[in-house]
Amino acid sequence: MGLGIMMKVGEDIYEELVEAAREDAPLEACGILAGVDGVVEKFYRMTNSDASAEHYTMVPEEQFAAVKDMRELGLTMLAVWHSHPATPARMSEEDIKLAYMPETIYAILSLENPAEPVLKGFEVVDGEANEVEVETGNRQ
């Protein structure tokens, strides 16, 4: 059973995600999305210390700085975000295995078709990834 969660990403932040994914390609980009009541207000871009096209690890010092900033701004971590430079926006087996926070959305931006990036969100419950609703400001 899902958590009934959703996330809204405004056009400005959506464009930041696309830009980060394109800049880091062919490696995976990663970061944290923070906001209030499911509405993303800030994107914290992180360094992928793995420098890999297939997985990512965020730098702990950058994560701590983001969490400190979120607290100061009254924001909550809504999602852990990363890109898939050449594959669809779906949770890989490794993504699921490394999904340690059950009430967090795992957002993936796919550049499989570079002209049409796809952003999807997932919750991981009992080792299964379930898609959650993600609204982006760029939709008509």
Quick recap:
With 140 residues, this protein is of the alpha/beta class. The protein has three helices and seven strands; from the N terminus they run E-H-E-E-H-E-H-E-E-E. The protein has a single domain, classed as Cytidine Deaminase, domain 2 (3-Layer(aba) Sandwich), CATH 3.40.140.
What topology does this entry show?
Blueprint: E1 6-9, H1 11-24, E2 30-36, E3 39-46, H2 60-73, E4 76-84, H3 93-97, E5 105-110, E6 118-125, E7 128-136
Parallel strand pairs: 1-7, 4-5
Antiparallel strand pairs: 2-3, 2-4, 5-6, 6-7
Description of the structure:
The chain is of the alpha/beta class. The chain is built from three helices and seven strands, in the order βαββαβαβββ. A hairpin with a 7-residue loop joins strand 5 and strand 6. It has a seven-stranded mixed beta sheet with strand order 1-7-6-5-4-2-3, sandwiched between helices. The protein starts with 5 loop residues before the first strand and ends with a strand. It has a single domain (6-136), classed as Cytidine Deaminase, domain 2 (3-Layer(aba) Sandwich), CATH 3.40.140.10. It has helices spanning 11-24, 60-73, 93-97, and strands spanning 6-9, 30-36, 39-46, 76-84, 105-110, 118-125, 128-136.
